[in-house]
Design brief:
Layout lengths: L13 H18 L18 H17 L9 H10 L5 H21 L5 H17 L11 H14 L5 E5 L6 E3 L9 E5 L1 H9 L11 E3 L11
Parallel strand pairs: 1-3
Antiparallel strand pairs: 1-2, 3-4
Helix pairs in contact: 1-4, 1-5, 1-6, 2-3, 2-4, 2-5, 5-6
Length: about 230
C-alpha cells in the first residue's frame, strides 16, 4: 500500500502514475458521453463547463510537456486564455489533447524535482469535478486516490499547512497532514477520504458535511488552493 508517512522520500514517478491511473478511468468515460454533457456547468468551478475544465487541464499539462511555463502561467488570466484558444475545437479534440497530456506529463513532472507535483494533484481533483458533474461514481476517490493522498500529504507539509490527524473510514491506519513540528496541536478529522480531499481542495461537501467530523480547525483552513 502507498504510504503517506512524513519520512517518505519523494517518489518522482508518483505524479505520473496518478495521471495515467486517472487517464484510464476518465478518458473512456468522456468518449462515451453525449456532446451535451460537455456544456454542463460544474459545481466546483461555477464559471466553467465540463468542457472548460477539460480544456484547462489539457492546456496545463501540455504547457508542462512542451516547457511553456513562463511568468503568470496557471494564473486565472492564463487559464482563461488557454480555454479561449480551444473554443473552436471539437470536444473530441479537447479529450485527445487531455489524453496526450496525462500520458506524457509524468516524466516532465518527475524531472522537475517536486516543483510540478501539485500539477498532477490538481488535475486529479479536476477529474473528480468532472466525474461528479456527470453523475459518475468515484469522484475524488477511485484507483488514483492512494497516490493523490501521498501528494496531498507532502503538499501540506511543504507548505507548513495546519497539522491534521485523519482517521479515515476507508483506511486502516490514520494519516497525518500538514506541519508536523508539534508547535500547534493537530486538528482531528473523522470521515472518508473523498470528503477529506474535498475539504483540502475547497470543493462542495455532500449533505452539508453531516458525514464527517472536524475538530480543532475550521473547514476553510484546510483549503490548499485558496
Amino acid at each position: 500500500m502507498t504510504s503517506v508517512d512524513a519520512d517518505d522520500v519523494r517518489d518522482p514517478e508518483l505524479p505520473g502514475r496518478l495521471l495515467t491511473t486517472e487517464r484510464d478511468v476518465l478518458i473512456p468515460l468522456l468518449r462515451a458521453r453525449p456532446e451535451a454533457d460537455f456544456a454542463l456547468p460544474t459545481a466546483a468551478c461555477p464559471d466553467w463547463t465540463v468542457r472548460d475544465v477539460l480544456a484547462h487541464c489539457s492546456a496545463a499539462l501540455l504547457r508542462a510537456v512542451e516547457g511553456r511555463l513562463g511568468p503568470g502561467v496557471f494564473s486565472p488570466e492564463s487559464n482563461d486564455r488557454d480555454i479561449a484558444e480551444r473554443a473552436d475545437w471539437t470536444n473530441a479534440m479537447v479529450v485527445d489533447e487531455l489524453e496526450r497530456g496525462m500520458t506524457e506529463a509524468g516524466p516532465v513532472i518527475a524531472a522537475a524535482g517536486g516543483a510540478l507535483d501539485t500539477l498532477a494533484l490538481g488535475e486529479w481533483v479536476h477529474s473528480g469535478d468532472v466525474r461528479e458533474t456527470l453523475g459518475e461514481p468515484g469522484a475524488y476517490a477511485g484507483p488514483g486516490q492512494p497516490h493523490a493522498l501521498v501528494l496531498l500529504a507532502r503538499t501540506t507539509r511543504e507548505r507548513g499547512h495546519l497539522p491534521l490527524h485523519a482517521d479515515l473510514d476507508d483506511r486502516d491506519e490514520p494519516l497525518r497532514f500538514g506541519d508536523l513540528s508539534g508547535e500547534r496541536p493537530p486538528a482531528r478529522y473523522i470521515g472518508d477520504s473523498a470528503t477529506l480531499v474535498r475539504l483540502y481542495a475547497g470543493r462542495p461537501v455532500p449533505d452539508g458535511g453531516a458525514g464527517y467530523e472536524l475538530a480543532g480547525a475550521e473547514k476553510g483552513e484546510l483549503n490548499i488552493f485558496g
